[in-house]
Amino acid sequence: MKIVVVGSGGREHALADVLARHHEVTVTPGNAGIANSTDVTAEELVAGGGVDLVVVGPEAPLVDGLADRLRAAGVRVFGPGADGARLEGSKEFMKEVASAAGLPTARYGAFDDPDEAIAFLGTLPGPWVVKTDGLAAGKGVLVTEDLTAAESDVRDKLSGDAFGDAGRKVVVEEGLSGPEVSVFLVCDGTTAVALPAAQDFKRVGDGDTGPNTGGMGAWCPLPFISDGFEAEIVETFAEPTLAELRRRGIDYRGVLYAGFMLTDDGPKLLEYNVRFGDPDSQPVLVRMTSDLGALLAAAADGDLASAPAPTFADDAAVLVVAASEGYPIAPRTGDRIDGLDESRGVEGVTVFCAGVKRGSDDGTLETAGGRVLNVLGRGPDVATARARAYEATARISWPGMHYRHDIAGS
Ligand code: AMP
Ligand code: GLY
């Protein structure tokens, strides 16, 4: 197949790489570190003919209806329409669907009035969670043990200054605790196939310290997940969700990225995103031994039953994100990246490029964003995969580069 991948980050680099094992892939807009990147838009590429499948990477174009426009142009698309993308675009909508579908999730209320939100906070035992309703690039969530801090966060978020339209409403939730895991559910509107669970490391600093980020590392498979966990997730979460969406007239064809907290009472759903996680899907996707393109095309056709169940290598993958100085608060860009080729020389290592651009002296790359490179090590076990990822990361440098040292254990 000829496949177009939409997006420009590490997730799209990994998707393109894995899809290219069986298919011809173009990435739009891609980045300077991804082969076959083009500035021609997906809509233009599709209009040119010959495209068999479009895979939309990020949430923003999905929320904006790109999948609907491409489907209207007659092309097969993996990614939900704007109606389904509201699961990520509105936390209130996601919680409504979760309640209607009877999914285990945190108790919540959605409010545009600060006094009502604060009154509801007072009925919860704490810790307390305050979220902006709309997309806030991973920065709209406060989890706190301090009720006063939660109350002032409600007022800040609803003042409209901090998040613009995304902050018009807040969702207030009971705080849960336990390890967090990500499960990617490939959906065809009716049924779902779960990929092996992965874990993301969201705080910027070692030992889960410092501010939240888009993700500083990830690993898969997870030794603390039991056999049958993903099948349970399909049955308890994915299928009821797809049924509830269908009841609302939504034919969800794309990936449901379910974020869970593994509480003492079992897995509880924290969030749904409508795309693959970045970076957490990368160590999952690279381990796939079957044809990813065939799986996504079958989902896009509403016919997952026609694709063989995906298979995965019996190894481990550990990913370390190399970030630029100041990330996640104020990333500095424009620094020359040294050592990329040397890092790729480490056995079992692949480096996926995210925030990079072509440097002034053509052969090199420069930093162009907060999360710059995704250094992924594979090996027969976690310890080997991890050692390879860190050996390769240590070969890369630019002024102010930083990364976590405790991904997949210390
Ligand atoms: P979200 O954007 O909804 O995924 O929230 C971002 C992060 O906030 C999650 O990855 C969790 O670490 C944390 N979080 C969200 N909801 C809760 C909750 N109900 N209890 C505890 N932590 C939460
Ligand atoms: N790694 C978190 C996300 O993709 O949202």
Describe the structure.
The termini are far apart. The protein is globular and about 60 Å long. It has 410 residues and is an alpha+beta fold. The mean pLDDT is 95. The protein has a 5-stranded antiparallel sheet with strand order 11-14-17-21-18. The longest helix is centred in the middle third of the chain and has 19 residues. Helix 5 crosses helix 6. It folds into 4 domains: 81 residues, Rossmann fold, CATH 3.40.50.20; 68 residues, ATP-grasp fold, A domain (Dna Ligase, domain 1, 2-Layer Sandwich), CATH 3.30.1490.20; 130 residues, D-amino Acid Aminotransferase, Chain A, domain 1; 79 residues, Glycinamide Ribonucleotide Synthetase, Chain A, domain 4. The structure holds adenosine monophosphate and glycine (GLY). Adenosine monophosphate binds next to strand 6, strand 7 and strand 16.
Tell me the helix content: 25-40%
Q: In percent terms, what proportion of residues is strand?
A: 25-35%
CATH fold field value of the largest domain: D-amino Acid Aminotransferase, Chain A, domain 1
The name of the CATH architecture of the largest domain is 2-Layer Sandwich
| Major sheet attributes | 5 strands, antiparallel
Distance between the termini: 42 Å
CATH superfamily of the largest domain: ATP-grasp fold, B domain
When the domains are counted, the total is: 4
Bound molecules: adenosine monophosphate, glycine
Name the average pLDDT. Answer: 95
CATH class of the largest domain: Alpha Beta
- Secondary structure tally, helices: 13
- Evaluate the radius of gyration: 21 Å
